[in-house]
Specification:
heterotetramer, B: mainly alpha, MetI-like fold, 11 helices, 0% strand, C: 318 residues, mainly alpha, two-stranded antiparallel ribbon, binds adenosine-5'-triphosphate, binds magnesium ion, transport (chain B), transmembrane (chain B), BP-dependent_transpt_permease (chain B), MetI-like_sf (chain B), MetI-like (chain B)
């Protein structure tokens, strides 16, 4: 029998050794089959992990979570309402046709087309128009000042696809028969439904830095955590992102490769979705957070490979922030240590003892159980009752999009990751009446601070305002932060070169992998 | 059209009598599981969903006889509560399908003619939908959980019972003893319900007992696929599913215990069902 | 009755059953209370565009029978509609995954045939002896091991502990595919071996007790010849009947095994589609399995006179 | 030369049960030896032991010597050799004995091809010549036919031909004609006798029919409960049985009184003439004659009258079957009418219409003056019909509800028709049971634990409980052993006498009808071809079919050639069906 979990030891890795040479091919485990490689729907790890290597965006989000020019050679922000992109010259799509501004306009306009129903609409919500303003120039006009739009152009929202291909493939665009035609270091090869997607090195790739080191990469879909782990352990596949927590200790011991931990932007939170109920009282929220054995949760849910946190962002997204801002945002915040007695008292003060809460969960992965059960246990320990309601994964997804689905629901879990290198992405969401402000939390002071920050163009200056917002959220706890955990990666003994980071969602990481 | 009933019938064919010890052991085992299920709230050492994050995936110990799962929940307690859905759901299916099956089978077998043909055609269609498939389809339509699958399984199994009853009744009906009752002046209803039906009941009962085992395994499979009983409710199939990820870490117990329990219960039910049908097999050839 | 008329009759029955099954598959959707559009879009963001698209695609504004006719016309031409999840034609989605399932079913079927027949024959020839009892007990226990239990145990032992077999995927090329499918097909075969084994045994035992077998023996035929020509040959009927039932059972149970072994077949697709509320795919797979069942059984029915000449005359078989 | 020499053969089961107890028996070349005895006496076991076909875990004792080979300790190879060249066996039921899934040709040629290694064409030629020898009409065609396409008689010929392919020295026949009609039996026996004579084989002939044994055997062995009770010259054993068992058996065996070309004989003479070999077997029939003279009450309206009854079964895709064609009968109050005819002649259908189980297509049935043509529908009609006529069915094993005890079965029937207190009913049940020779213990017994004879008594009591006007008995004794049959028959006679019961007695066995019935009708393919007083009918048959039926019944001086001639004569004119 494995002995009792010791406090896990781990450190973040930012880069791995450069490859010693090129590869014929390597295989990669993907925990699920993408439904589509259409960037407009690429909203999940499984899709983006593949897509990031095939399709490129206007901006490039690097493994260290910084933003640099991508298909846009440069970006200008002449007025607070406009963003002007100069499209890079000499880039060709995988079919050999050159990239033009028209392609960018067509690709970006899809997000605005209701018939498409893009998953990235929110990035474009303030866009008034997208126009070609020169041979290789695209101008995006916003309805108001917006410092964030460009940050989103590093992700799937900024992907540029050949306009001709979009028109040609129509409804089959992005599916296993239609495929995609982008500009990335790999081109779409073969999609064996249910089995694998093979990408092939694109020899006409424009960026010599990121020319693929491997002639081929094959993503193998393995839904089963056991299967994935076994395949990694035995060397059947060369690597994989997001290793099942149960398998991490074993893979650390494995001599088939390296188990690595990388930068992440996600914080695991409990969303308070009803502020009119017992949790409307901030003391009850604070009490619940104090009653949660968050270290225990870390141990059970991610086998100890994580750290508890009291704020809703990770330091990694504070790109370009001033040191002062980071000190404020992470040093000068309230801590909520595990203290059941104090928590109980708070609940009594609030007169909420005996109140009932509804927690909604779904059988999505085994850690979901941990959060549900731990929350129930915590609530019970401070005199509250939590009723756990289990719904289907789809109904669970609906909690995030459909207000009626949240009726009568007090709490649910989320792992909220930021897809741009700015913590403001997180806090703009929590403004009054924002779509994803699920509990309808409203704090005028907070709204003012965030709005002010959004209008500031200088990242360092902006970050100091953002730090204030973080402090308010930390006191008020519209969501309950639990812990952050690093991105996990297993890299087999044949390969090297990749930088462990959540940027695998958007950065052509597979191109960096070569022979060890 | 040939049907699964025929297959079942062949399975039932008489054979050398098993020593009764296996039968007894099976009966005692099933009894124990039933008692554990009924009195789970008294017998179980812990509440089924009590999480103990400090004590996860623990091996067997005096505090946790069968260890704990990935959330530190007591496996033994969850097994006891899980026995409830494991036994009750198939029981409902078997009771419902047996009642409906017998009524329809009696109607078809006794009346014959167009009623028989129409029912036979309907049975053929339902037979074309394997029970598990019908259950999966029900889940697709009505959502996850046990209600839809139980109803679907009842519908899927009713024709098995009905067809068996029909063929038994039809062959009984042509026997001279039925003609003898008629000649004596007894009415058709009386003969069918009070005389012929009791004669075929034991075989139908034995078949239903065997069905219980199949249904149990199928519902457990459904929960294993994540389409049946939903977490955190304790259920054997769902427990195997949840504990599956622990297998790689070498935590075999949480998955193995419910898996073995399913196998043992099905074996016990089959032993009892087959012995029952053996015992009566000789008296009324099907 | 001529063979042609018999076959025509069977064909008619087959088409009728398929027709009724298609009604069931299609109209089951109407059993769910509420708006069919919201049913199909359940769990998805019901944007007006999506509603309009689904309404148009499924002709949901038409009367139900018209919808059915449209659907059926499509199905007959191999068009099962479009997957809501994969944004692709259902026929394409299924077609891509069918080979794996077929391979799995064929391999499992072969194992079942070999093991089941051997067990049944050995048991019947040693009726009442220790070997017979051992085989029977073994079959009973095997028959109680559901596919998912078999799968996890096989994975735990042969893939994880011993590392002899891969635990996922279906491999590439013929031999690699076979190698990959060994464990899954064993897991799939386990429960069904009992069916064939017991039927073979009881069918053989029944034939062994027949007077014509004794006649053959009394005429000086070798035991092997008697068993082959008279006992086994006559036992095939029930075995074949059970095999017909097996086909559907294997196809459905493959969903469990495929899910456990991470195989991309139509079984795991079925479960995933139920999970993701992709009803058009569910509908198509259900119809496919039902059709397979009905067709295989019809074939067996048509074959029956070759196995038992009395069947052609309409006399009772066996 | 002795072909077969069995001496002191014993056979024990592992549970200690002794099935054969010191059997000694010989068969010489060219000799026909009979083995007779009641069911379960061990005849088949003895015969099978000759070919080494033994129950798997039996222990054998004594010796079986077939020519120069000892069977019991023969090796596997020797056994195969012995079965292939020395002895062949013909089984009782040709339908069960020939693989239904293979063609007749395959059955015949199989051993020649697989054991003797002959070519297919060669084997085929031999098969055809053998089929001609057993007088199968179209050998070429039969080769490709399946067993279900042939009649029972033809199949038995196939079986004989099959047994002859190996040119055996000894032919063992295990009740080869029991499953066949009398006329067919006569033909088969003819074939067997002819083949035995022409090939000079020895023959061991097993039967439970004493008359048949007497007709064709040189010597007989009488078996009972695993022992040989008596042996000797066939005729001698029947004329003058020595062992007590044989005496009982001979006495119980009914016979038709046949005096070729003689005038009808009074039954009394028969009874007296027990020393006369021809009439010996009719010794116990005296009762019947007296019965027939006591009851006849003409002049009054008949108790049962059926006029112009017809019944046609139509089945989809097949020719309609005219089961009964324009049949009329009348039975006076207290009379007994026999209906005889071969299998399928419509006897049962006729009976079922009378008891209201089947609707007649045409005609009129009256019982005690009341219209009883249609199948009763209402409860009142049902009960009235039931009180007017009751029936005893052929198979005692199937005509009782397996779950209901004998007492309860009778009580139920009784209380359906009359209001009775529980105690009264119990009393009446016991009375009835006693009347049929059963007692208190049997009231509690389920059918499973009763013997065939006992079951038939229960069935009789159950029918009598309703006190019907007419009792229909459909082959009520044909499934029973001769001695049991004799007991049941005398019981029926007794009851008739006591209650003045009117009886319609259906049988294929002329001898049984002769014993019980005053009058008899003969049915052939649905139609009544002859009717009259039983004795006259038997003694002086008018219709050729009746004559054939009578001549087909085995008896010591049996002219098989005459039977064959009659049969072929009948073929042509009546072949219309
Ligand atoms: N294989 C066997 N195992 C055990 N008992 C057997 C076996 N075969 C026959 N017997 C028993 O042996 C006794 C004699 O059987 P056998 O078949 O020789 O009787 P029989 O004289 O041929 O009767 P019948 O006229 O009914 O054919 C019966 O009691 C029967 O039950
Ligand atoms: N229900 C039925 N449907 C069709 N044909 C039938 C039915 N019952 C009887 N027959 C046919 O009617 C004919 C007469 O049958 P029946 O049973 O009356 O003959 P039987 O003289 O009693 O013969 P046995 O001596 O064999 O009992 C037979 O050819 C039989 O096949
Ligand atoms: Mg016998
Ligand atoms: Mg009859």
């Amino acid at each position: 029998e494995p002995e009792k979990a010791q406090p896990a030891e781990w450190e973040l890795t930012s880069t791995t050794d450069a490859p010693s040479g090129d590869l014929e091919s390597f295989t990669w485990a993907n925990y699920a089959e993408p439904y589509s490689l259409d960037y407009a729907y690429a909203f999940d790890y499984a899709d983006n992990m593949v897509l990031a290597n095939v399709c490129e965006s206007l901006m490039r989000l690097n493994p260290d979570w910084t933003l640099s020019p991508g298909l846009a050679e440069s970006v200008a922000h002449p007025t607070p309402e406009t963003w002007v992109y100069e499209i890079r010259d000499g880039v060709t799509f995988h079919d050999g046709t050159p990239l033009t501004a028209a392609d960018a306009v067509a690709s970006m306009n899809r997000h605005l087309d209701p018939a498409v129903g893009s998953s990235w609409y929110s990035t474009y919500q303030n866009v008034a128009s997208i126009e070609q303003t020169g041979d290789m120039q695209v101008t995006v006009t916003m309805t108001g000042p917006d410092s964030q739009f460009n940050l989103g152009m590093g992700g799937s929202a900024g992907v540029i696809e050949s306009a001709a291909t979009l028109a040609d493939k129509g409804a089959d665009y992005g599916n296993s028969t239609g495929g995609v035609n982008c500009t990335g270091p790999f081109s779409f090869g073969e999609w064996q439904s249910g089995e694998s997607i093979t990408l092939e090195r694109y020899d006409g790739y424009w960026d010599p830095e990121l020319t693929a080191r491997s002639a081929e990469v094959k993503f193998i879909f393995m839904n089963d955590a056991n299967a994935r782990t076994n395949a990694l352990k035995s060397g059947e596949v060369d690597g994989g992102w997001m290793i099942p927590a149960d398998a991490v200790p074993q893979l650390l011991d494995s001599d088939q490769g390296d188990m690595l931990f990388g930068l992440n932007t996600a914080v695991n939170n409990l969303i308070i979705s009803d502020l009119d109920g017992p949790l409307g009282d901030v003391r009850v929220r604070q009490a619940l957070l104090m009653a949660l054995d968050r270290q225990g949760i870390v141990d059970a849910a991610v086998k100890g490979y994580g750290t508890t946190t009291d704020v809703l962002t990770t330091e990694s997204v504070w790109d370009g922030a001033s040191d002062a801002a980071i000190a404020t945002a992470f040093g000068d915040v309230e801590e909520y240590p595990y203290d059941v007695e104090a928590a109980k008292k708070l609940v009594e003060e609030a007169g909420a003892t005996g109140a009932e809460l509804t927690y909604v969960t779904a059988p999505i992965s085994s850690d979901f159980n941990v959060y549900a059960q731990a929350t129930a246990a915590a609530a019970e320990s401070i005199g509250l009752t939590v009723n756990i309601e289990t719904v289907t994964p789809n109904a669970y997804t609906a909690l995030f999009s459909d207000p009626t689905a949240r009726e009568g629901v007090d709490l649910f879990y989320t792992s909220w990751y930021l897809s741009s290198p700015d913590p403001l992405e997180m806090y703009s969401v929590l403004r009054t009446d924002e779509f994803s402000n699920y509990g309808g939390w409203s704090n005028p002071e907070f709204d003012a601070v965030v709005n002010e920050a959004l209008a500031i163009q200088d990242p360092a200056e902006r970050s100091e305002k953002t730090a204030e917002a973080q402090q308010i959220a930390n006191e008020e706890l519209p969501w309950l932060p639990m812990f952050e955990a690093p991105v996990t990666l297993f890299m087999g003994e044949r390969i090297t070169g990749v930088s462990p980071s959540i940027a695998f969602m958007y950065y052509p990481w597979a191109a960096t992998i070569g022979a060890r | 059209m040939t049907t699964p009933t025929m297959a079942m019938k062949v399975l039932r064919s008489p054979r050398a009598r098993r020593s009764s010890t296996t039968f007894l052991i099976s009966a005692v085992f099933l009894g124990a599981v039933t008692i554990a299920a009924i009195f789970a709230s008294f017998l179980a050492p812990y509440p089924p969903n009590q999480v103990d994050l400090l004590n996860i995936q623990a091996g067997p110990s005096p505090a946790h006889w069968l260890g704990t799962d990935a959330l530190g929940r007591d496996t033994l307690s969850r097994m006891m509560y899980g026995a409830r859905t494991a036994l009750l759901a198939p029981l409902l299916v078997v009771v419902f399908s047996t009642i409906v099956g017998i009524l329809l089978g009696l109607l078809a077998g006794w009346r014959g003619g167009w009623i028989d043909s129409v029912l036979g055609r309907i049975f053929d269609v339902i037979f074309a939908f394997p029970a598990l498939l019908l259950a999966i389809m029900a889940v697709a339509l009505f959502g996850k959980g046990l209600v839809a699958p139980v109803v679907a399984m009842s519908i899927a199994y009713a024709p098995f019972v009905a067809r068996l009853t029909r063929s038994l009744i039809a062959s009984e009906r042509s026997r001279p003893y039925v003609a003898a009752y008629r000649v004596q002046g007894f009415g058709g209803g009386f003969i069918a319900l009070r005389r012929v039906l009791p004669n075929v009941m034991p075989i139908v009962g034995a078949q239903s007992t065997l069905n219980f085992g199949y249904v149990l395994a199928e519902l457990a499979a459904l929960s294993f696929l994540g389409l049946g009983v939903q977490a955190p409710t304790a259920d054997w199939g769902a427990m195997v599913n949840e504990a599956q990820s622990g297998l790689i870490g070498g935590y075999f117990l949480p998955a193995l215990v419910p898996a073995v329990a399913i196998v043992l219960v099905v074996v016990a039910v089959n032993v009892i069902g087959e012995e029952l049908s053996d015992r009566i097999g000789g008296e009324i050839p099907a | 009755m001529t063979t042609l008329r018999r076959v025509a009759g069977k064909l008619g029955a087959l088409l009728l059953t398929l027709f009724l099954a298609s009604l069931l598959v299609f109209f089951s959707r109407f059993l769910v209370p509420g708006d069919p559009v919201s049913f199909l879009l359940r769990g998805r963001k019901p944007s007006p565009e999506a509603v309009a698209q689904v309404t148009a695609q499924y002709g949901l504004d038409l009367p139900p029978w018209q919808q059915y006719l449209n659907w059926l016309t499509g199905v007959l031409q191999g068009d099962f509609g479009r997957s809501l999840q994969y944004r692709q034609d259902v026929s394409q989605v299924i077609g891509d995954r069918l080979p794996v399932t077929l391979g799995l079913v064929v391999m499992a079927g072969t194992m079942i045939a070999i093991v089941g027949l051997t067990a049944g024959i050995v048991a019947s020839l040693n009726r009442g002896k220790v070997l017979d009892r051992a085989v029977l007990i073994g079959l009973t226990v095997l028959g109680a091991i559901p596919s998912f239990v078999g799968s996890i145990v096989l994975i735990a032992i042969f893939a994880v502990q011993l590392g002899w077999f891969p635990s996922f995927g279906s491999g590439e090329g013929f031999w690699d595919t076979i190698y990959h499918l060994v464990l899954p097909s064993i897991a799939l075969a386990i429960v069904f071996v009992v069916l064939v084994g017991k039927v073979t045994r009881s069918s053989m035992v029944e034939q062994l007790g027949r007077e014509h077998v004794e006649v053959a023996t009394s005429r000086g035929l070798k035991r092997g010849t008697v068993i082959r020509r008279h006992v086994f040959r006559n036992s095939i009927g029930p075995i074949l009947t059970v095999s017909g039932v097996l086909v559907a059972g294997l196809l459905v149970a493959s969903s469990i095994v495929e899910a456990a072994f991470g195989l991309a077949g139509i079984g795991s697709l079925l479960v995933a589609s139920v999970d993701r509320l992709d009803f058009p795919v569910v509908q198509a797979i259900v119809l496919l399995i039902v059709t397979a069942f009905v067709v295989v059984n019809a074939i067996i029915d048509v074959l029956e006179p070759w196995i038992d000449p009395r069947a052609a005359a309409g006399a009772g078989a066996r | 030369m002795t072909l077969l020499d069995i001496s002191e053969l014993t056979l024990d089961l592992p549970n200690g049960k002794r099935l054969l107890d010191g059997i000694s028996l010989t068969v010489a070349e060219g000799e026909t030896v009979g083995l007779v005895g009641e069911s379960g006496s061990g005849k088949s076991l003895t015969a099978r032991s000759v070919l080494g076909l033994l129950p798997s875990r039996a222990t054998m004792g004594g010796s079986v010597q077939l020519l120069d080979q000892s069977v019991l300790d023969a090796s596997r190879r020797q056994l195969l050799e012995l079965r292939r060249t020395r002895a062949s066996m013909i089984f009782q039921d040709p339908r069960a004995g020939i693989n239904p899934m293979r063609t007749v040709g395959d059955h015949l040629t199989e051993t020649m091809r697989l054991c003797e290694g002959r070519s297919a064409a060669d084997a085929r030629a031999v098969a055809i010549s053998l089929m001609e020898a057993v007088r199968l009409p179209r050998p070429e065609e039969h080769l490709h036919q399946y067993p279900h396409e042939l009649s029972g008689g033809m199949l038995q010929r196939v079986m004989i031909a099959g047994a002859l392919t190996s040119s055996p020295r000894l032919l063992i026949c295990d009740e080869p004609t029991t499953a066949l009609d009398v006329t067919t039996q006569a033909e088969i026996i003819g074939v067997l006798a002819e083949q035995r004579a022409s090939r000079g084989m020895g023959m061991l002939f097993i039967t439970h029919d004493l008359n048949l044994a007497a007709a064709i055997c040189d010597r007989v062995y009488v078996m009972s409960a695993g022992r040989v009770e008596e042996q000797g010259d066939a005729r001698q054993v029947f004329r003058n049985p020595q062992a007590a068992y044989t005496k009982r058996l001979v006495a119980a065996t009914p016979t038709i009184v046949v005096r070729d070309s003689s005038t009808p004989t009074d039954a009394g003479t028969d009874a007296a003439a027990s020393t006369n070999p021809d009439a010996a077997v009719g010794a116990s029939t005296g009762g019947a004659a007296s019965a027939s003279s006591t009851v006849a009450v003409p002049a009054t309206e008949p108790m049962l009258s059926a006029t112009g009854i017809s019944k046609t079964y139509t089945r989809r895709g097949k020719e309609p079957v005219h089961a009964v064609i324009d049949a009329s009968i009348e039975i006076p109050r207290g009379g007994a009418l026999g209906v005889v005819g071969e299998s399928g002649s419509g006897k049962s259908t006729f009976a079922r219409m009378i008891v209201g189980l089947e609707q007649a297509d045409a005609g009129d049935i009256r019982i005690a003056g009341r219209e009883r043509t249609s199948v009763p529908s209402s409860r009142v009609e049902r009960l009235e019909h039931a009180r007017s006529v009751q029936m005893v069915f052929q198979d005692p094993y199937l005509s009782l509800d397996p779950r209901i005890t004998a007492g309860k079965a009778i009580e139920d029937a009784m209380r359906l028709h009359r209001r009775l207190s529980t105690t009264d009913a119990r009393e009446r049940v016991l009375e009835l049971l006693e009347q049929v020779g059963l007692g208190d213990v049997h009231a509690q017994a389920r059918p499973r634990t009763l013997s065939g004879g006992q079951r038939q008594r229960v069935a009789l009591a159950r029918a009598l409980a309703i006190e019907p006007d007419v009792l229909v008995m459909d082959e009520a004794t044909s499934a029973l052993d001769v001695s049991v049959q004799a007991q049941v028959l005398s019981l029926v006679e007794e009851i008739r006498r006591e209650r003045g019961l009117t009886v319609l007695f259906i049988s294929h066995d002329l001898a049984v009808v002769r014993r019980l019935c005053d009058e008899t009708v003969v049915m052939k393919t649905g139609a009544i071809v002859e009717r009259g007083r039983t004795i006259e009918l038997l003694g002086n048959p008018q219709h050729p079919y009746t004559r054939l039926l009578i001549d087909s019944v085995p008896r010591p001086e049996w002219n098989l050639d005459a039977v064959a001639a009659e049969a072929s004569e009948l073929e042509d004119p009546v072949a219309q069906n």
